[in-house]
Amino acid sequence: MLSVAGADHIVTMDLYASRIQGFFDIPVDNLYAEPAVLQWIRENFAEWKNCIIVLPDAGGAKRVTSIADGLNVEFALIHKERKKVNEVDQMVLVGDVKDHVGILVDDMADTCSTVCHAVDKLPSAGATKVYAVLTHGIFSGPAVSGVNNAAFEAVVITNTIPQEDKMKHCTKIQVTDIAMILAEAIRRAHSGESVSYLFSHAPL
What we know:
Radius of gyration: 18 Å
Oligomer: single chain
Structural class: alpha/beta
């Protein structure tokens, strides 16, 4: 649809699967929220050096290990054990979060059932506080009430989707602005400069 409508270049952020770029016959720049996430954690979490990055679903291991490496901290993961297809029997924490601040990291918050189930595991395993840092805040269905009832200190998301309405109903939702990343990508593409710099650096 975008190509037929006349687009000749796509700038997007944190595609669900990077192979989606291959479906386009025009250039696609898939930016990453990670540089902005790292910057936000360092600037807003006083205890970030004592944090442990937690993956709520084994599918995003590359993202979590990259963020943990960027902060020079450890990471853990939540392993889902299934007895039937699409039915989670139990969630098992792999890693030691005792006396650490747990930061759950994922690319998308849709119904939030995964992160809300995952957050229950961390305090009982000894985590002092639990945050979630997510890229796309969809918050469909019961997501907002689920976040309100879960043991999060805060749920930090980017503004790839407007969040003003959701923030009125949930004080735990905080937003980190990624507008400058998109603006710099557009400027670089327009002037023929490398966009790949933004894959690992947040613009000043």
